[in-house]
Amino acid sequence: MLRTTLAGLRLHKGRLVTTALAVALGVMFVSGTLVFSDTLRESFASQVMGSAGKMDAVAMAEERGPEGEIARDVLAEVRDLPEIDRAAGVTRAAAPLLDPDGRAVGTTPTLGLSVGEVTRYSAAEGDLPEGPEEAALATTTADNAGYEVGDTAQVLDADGEKHSFTVTGLIDFGISDEISYRGAVAFAPATAAQMTGTDGLAEIDAIAAEGVSAQEAADAVEAVAGDHAEVLTGKKLGERLASDAGTQADVLAMGLLLFALISVVVAAIVIHNTFAILVAQRQREMALLRCVGAVRRQVFTSVVAEALVVGVLASAVGVLAGIGLGVAGYAVGSDAIAADASGATAVVTPQTVLIGLAVGTATTLSAALMPARRATFVPPLAALRTSDVASGLAKNFGVVRIAVGTLLLAAAAGTVALALSIDDSDQALMLVAGGGVVAFAGVVAWSPLVVRVAVAAVAPLMRALGVSSALAADNARRNPKRAATAMIALTVGATLITGYAVVNASMMSTTDARLDEQFPMDYRIHAQIALEEDSTGVDPEVARDLREQPEIDTVVAERRKIRESPDHFAYFTTFLGADVADAVDAEAASGDLADVGPGTVAVHDEFASEGVGDTLRLDTEDGERSYEVAAVVDEAQTAWSVIMAPADFAEAFPSVGTDNSLRVTATDGADSERLHDAVYSAVEGHPTLQVQSVADSRRQYEEMLNTAFLAIVAMLGLAVVIAVFGIANTLALSVLERTRESAMLRALGLKRAQLRVMLVWEAVLLCVIGAAVGVGLGAVFGWASVAVMFDDPLFSLPVGQIGAFLAAAVAAGLLASVLPSRQAARTSITAAMASE
Questions:
Q1: Which of 72, 313, 435, 649 is the most exposed place for a label (fewest CB within 10 A)?
Q2: Domain for residue 161, yes or no?
Q3: How much is the pTM?
């Protein structure tokens, strides 16, 4: 039986090439993801371990801010320790960097820090700063702001004064969430203290004296650092940072492996279909084996052995290709994830190789088990048949199959209905995903019926188009189960792509509507978000200057005070320059926002239980004050607790002298460039103010969503490619099965070109049906996902993207038919008529 199996593999190797390629592609994705994540993890770890490993002891303030800093006299004590050779303190506080246009970089002030003689950071390009007029930038900050080594950059000190510095170098800070978000500018120690205005230290880095171990140095530093600092050896700090970096790499790897799993599932469908057809076509061969003494177990083992050989060889190829994919992916994508690709060596672990081999082999074997079992039921008398036509692959479908599909689809509908009825969006989204899986199983059960109905629907059109298209429709309809199995692999990719396209388009539509409702303005101006202290706000003179510009119609200033209580935070708000009803983007559940005036307030129902007409007592800076409730709002998107009249707000919170933000609306017909110049001229003397164009915000958000959509489509594209291979393989095997039939058609007058066109139509028909089913399924569950993710969403069907995908399905069908149609057309009529 072993020799028979090997001989069968040699004989049918052409039929198994596409199957092996499908397995190899799936394994390539899995292995490539593992190589990429392992290399990324090693790169992150080497970056942080290398920087932390320079120090023997590191003392870090346990709390951020002035109250949690390490006092400078502690640094003096550390330097006096006999266990310490050298030590330096690290200052970390806000130091806003200005871009070349003079505006502050980022929505939060850039982090200013010190790098001295003893530091765990080094320059990736250029040199570290030493003089009072030198500074170094984080590599990501320099890229975002447009600075290079040798440029002159301006930084604001704690009093808002501008200082010019020469950029001496760029520092790669590795994985740092804070620096990734805020950016960083580094100074010499004395300059850092001057620029940030802070007296304390965020960190003390120390190098042990000769003959003193790192642990001994850390213990000595801990003895003088007190309770306000955590002291670690450099190695332990590096291990902690490496662990954090590894977590980020793992999260990325999990996302990629999810798409790899989809490709493997599609490959399994292709494998199953291929072996099912092969077993059906080889009934006489199996029957002859039974006639010469082979038992059922040996027949089963023979088919499984073929699958094992295909799986192992294809998996080996996939692992090798995956290593190349992982290395290439890391080299191309390292910049986007702040990893240093220079000098990086690909990390290929034995675990990665074993996982790749195991996934490919196990997938192939599991997909071949059912066809192998079916092969055992071939009776010896089948050897007497005169044709190898695959009667073993059922051409019809029974009531049980339809009933199971109906039950599964009903269960999926119930799951979605349950998801729509619960408030927890995370649980609801999981239910929708589960319902999608169940619905797909139902579609698989129904797929032969779907194929038969779809082909019957287009059959009149196919007959009108000519003989070739009519024959193609007949071929698909006479064996709907095989056609369904071939097209269902494409349905997987079509469902996922369409589902995400619907979610993406609906998110854009919903966001556009929310922006129009919540930001009915042209520009929004606000201060940088200060993390160390309360934001300074927007100087009232900016609003006055804006109101004097002829291009500007209205300027609404929002002022806010946050008061903390044992139970919650209260956000007290007022608006200057507009009535409350016009300024607030919410509808009153009771009362009228237009009634808010001196002595009256609007409240959110989550803040107070008082109703319209009741008296509300508020704790203000001027003591407890009473107000009448004029309106109650219950909308979840509202970002305030109480709205007061401007005069009442000024009396209640006299410490608030600046605006939280400004909403600027242009006059009708205002020129966009002149409006832009008017807005920026008003903020010219206030470099830290953030000017946000609503149109730009919408465009940036759409670009972000489109980029994410293209990335996901690209990763799902491999599953679609595998599905196309499956359709091509099914078509090629069908051509072999129908060799005598094709010869008979040729003998009756069908030309080579017509035979080719017939197979092209057959492939296109399968691809379009598979894609159409996926589009319908994806649209339904995309809508359900949007419905549970958002309150009052705007559902959007991306007709253009769906049309493009259907066009791609037609192109895929054309591509899948190239080799099978060429093979069929080249076959000799006489040789084909004589074939068995």
A1: 72
A2: yes
A3: 0.73
